């Protein structure tokens, strides 16, 4: 019989402002026994961004699994068309608040499977739905009652001996992904920043000079789900310290990724449902920006660093534009999954960088293989 559990999350120390002051080896996420990320022989490095997949939504209905299959079809189509060097899962990989199972990693695994099956390395970060508490559907308390719970298969480990409506915390999701997947370059960031987990840095090395980084990729956890939607001051201080430690002269370009847009996006957003005009580039502008709950200075740091080139977010399913903000480009990805709100055609944002000289350009690849919204973000 299914046991009903109530959950009380008490965070006695929400964010620690202590910083990890170690050397460069403690700054960069370079997984053990993994080859370093590197530009290809033609001096390019291509990244595909998958945003807002929402696997596991309405998992107890026929509709839910069907949407998951549709999402996998989108991922497969884009990957086969673009053949990227790297994939980034830009948050809301799953809809944990819809998962009537104790271990959301079984749906997480579905999301990364199209990338893993093609031998492409990837990294993930968290959105506001990935560890959200289960929301009880009101209809479950009608005459039909609570449906039978589908417990994870035996090869998925989870805490506790019962099958219950528990979900999986950020730390556990990340741990299971990393331990089970040699192609994952994800990381659980400094414990001093928890409950914010997906904070880490990847470097992409030169194709010709094996030790020289060409670009730094920064991943930040923008919160939501089990705690507020915010990039904390502790994360701001962490980024400031780490970026100065590994890139003190700002000579190496930096590209940043997180899920929920900053309040800065509101300042440069085209009027909702209006045509997107230059200097902005995009095709989808069907809603207002839904930003983080607070802004604690991270964008100000980016705009003062000549090395910071662009920030990429998801969250808003009805937006796919890029707009300049001072010397920085602020970009949305494209809603990739069939889960989540909105019926706009699915696709993915593609990023391509070149090494000599460094350049950064982007476009949208749709499920039907069409391409649009090409834009040069740095040259």
Automatic annotation (TrEMBL):
Protein name per UniProt: Probable inactive purple acid phosphatase 16
Signal peptide: 1-20
InterPro entries for the chain: Calcineurin-like_PHP, Metallo-depent_PP-like, PAP14/16/28/29
SUPFAM superfamilies associated with the record: Metallo-dependent phosphatases
GO cellular component entries: cytoplasm
Keyword Signal recorded: yes
Keyword annotations: Signal
Domain of life assignment: Eukaryota
Gene Ontology MF term list: hydrolase activity, acting on ester bonds
Domain Calcineurin-like phosphoesterase: 45-317
Pfam families: Metallophos
